Amino acid sequence: MNKILKRVLIIIGIIIGVIVLMFTWFFLKLKSETSGFAPMETGKIVEDIFVVKDGFANLFIIKDSAQYIVFDCANDKTTVAEQMKILGINLEDVSTVFLTHSDGDHVGALGLFDQAKLYMSKEEVQMINGTKSKFLWFGNSIPRTDYLLLEDREIVQIGNLKIEGILVPGHTTGMMAYLINDKYLFSGDILSLKEGKMAPIPAFFNMDNEQAIKSMEIIRHFPTVEYIFTSHWGYTEDYETAVAY
After folding, report:
1. Residue 25 domain-assigned?
2. What is the 3-state secondary structure (H, E, C) of 127-155?
3. How many domains are contained in the chain?
4. How far apart are CA 30 and CA 33, in angstroms?
5. Does 66 or 28 have the greater pLDDT score?
6. pTM (2 decimals)?
7. How confident is the model over 199-208, as pLDDT tens digits?
């Protein structure tokens, strides 16, 4: 009996050790990869577009008359609220939120905008209902269920803004970029910018890296676009140079 107990304890110890090593590797790798991020500082970027920095993530805001449209929600409610106060933007004036995807660093401050309409891609629901997960059994979650779902290339008109959702899976199953008035492209995590050129994001962050690279190619084919805004690698106002091979 003692021998059996010993073997069981040894097996349990090995399993725990493997799990600890896996998590240690994951968090060390995460720290290493995020050190290469280059988010923008909080401020006004161009015309009526603003950016909020929260750790290694950016949240974007577009002003349209008296209302504001938010793209992604970064990491932390307190930080985002403080940064928006610096910009002089009232939380209650945010009418609509668009999520590129549901990873934690894009939904952390979503609770600040409870009264705003919430949009995301139809395919991203798999990430929050338990069907899909990026790491083992750890799925994504958001604090709301009243979201509105977008099909690929579906257009939403909000005030003077024409917002087109562009499905670019790979980072997550329902990753969606947003094209605003055919001029401004919010790319989420489907690409990075390196010295003004479009580049893949680290494969470590993608669910399907091959698909993510294919999806990135979609971004090269919007002749009217002038600006690309990424979530972690800044922005460019020279679209043609950014997408050129």
Report:
1. no
2. HHCCCCCCECCECCCCCCCCCEEECCCCE
3. 1
4. 5
5. 66
6. 0.90
7. 999 998 999 9
